[in-house]
Amino acid sequence: MIRACTLLALALLPFSAPGARAGGLDVPIAGGKFESVLPPSPEVKVAVIPAFRMDTALVSNADFAAFVRKHAEWRRDSVAGLFADKGYLRHWASPTDPGKEVAAQPVTQVSWFAASAYCEARGARLPRWYEWELAAAASATAPDARDDPEWRQQILEWYSRSARGALPAAGASPANYFGVRDLHGVVWEWVEDAGSMLVSGDSREQGDPNRNRFCGSGAIDVEQKENYAMLMRIAMLSSMKASYSSNSMGFRCANDAGAQR
Amino acid sequence: MIGRGTLFTRAGLPLLLALMSLPLSATERNASLYQMHEKLLNQDGKAIDLDVYRGRKVLVTLFYGSCPATCPLIIDTLRAIEKKVDDAQRQDLRVLLVSLDPERDTPAALRQLADSRRIDTTRWTLAHADAAAVRLIAAALGVQYRKLPDGQFSHSTIISALDADGTIVVQSAELGHADPVILQAISAK
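YS: structure for the whole thing
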């Protein structure tokens, strides 16, 4: 029943929100208790996630170009080095035009700062890791398919596929249970709390990770070590500084469920 | 052929170089932290910007007041650094401690901490920032942090030395003593 409603909402989407971005913050996700690969603390294993909304499709080059044309400080030829490295939007035809071939593809080569600014300009924010992980736990038919061996296998196949070849268009992959697309098998995605993973290389630097470098209870242990796909994402996110860009890192936006749209 | 070459060297090359230098000089890869416009409150409740100490050498780090062990050590480490530099350099040096904990580290709480640790707030600032500002500042400083369910924060302890323009010169994760790389950055011209 829930799924039928979601599909109905998706079918109405182009008509219900004139001027809104396709693949936008249309689908509310209930949230709730969630067992993450990254528990809140060694003592608290279950995260409580408030209801949220998430873009149903990744942000495309065309979407990001519209933002850059309005906010010149985020053009690749004017952005500050503090906020973006030299790879920032390097693949675009010009500072304001991605070029026809990539316009519909998910935007990549964007820093965390730039992705955050894009979402802020839309009155939204980046998804938090728990929100992203919860949305990504769904298969086409179940909200949490992480214990389904078939689903796991499918995900692993996605992740083991060669990264060569053009990216599919943003929003082109099938919708999951929540109506969200592109969560697996397309690109890595920035999250708001990318700087909160605390399992980065630097915690492995000098022997005991808890010594000196961390105040509080130190580096967080990860759970569900068989959940490779999620652990790979966490490893990727914690290896990226906020100014870094990569041709395999994109993003989508999210918001609190009750936020104004 | 000669004509083309002449044109190229006489007009084309300088023009080309000028054009090439445009995007370079426009970006300059400006890495100054002072391009951030996040608002802070100091320990006296006064609104300040991140560039409150623009023009000086600054040590900046993130901490939180209720931290049981490492954060007192951060203050001790900053003091150890100050002890190792000569009087003139110390007079010129500034310290900015930004709290990760907007809920508990109100300006009043920070003032109390400054008094109890006998911090000279003419040269040191303990700053409150809201959660969004903390996230951006931490990202710019490369500090990882995470709020834990018990209200504590798990965070990497990095002291950054900024030049007069707010660019990070060097960073240190060493606590408990004055890291020579920080001392070098302070004594450099």
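YS: worth flagging: Residues 1-27 of chain B have pLDDT under 50 and may be disordered.
IM: good catch. Also The beta strands of chain B are 39-41, 47-49, 57-63, 93-99, 124-127, 145-147, 153-156, 159-162, 168-172.
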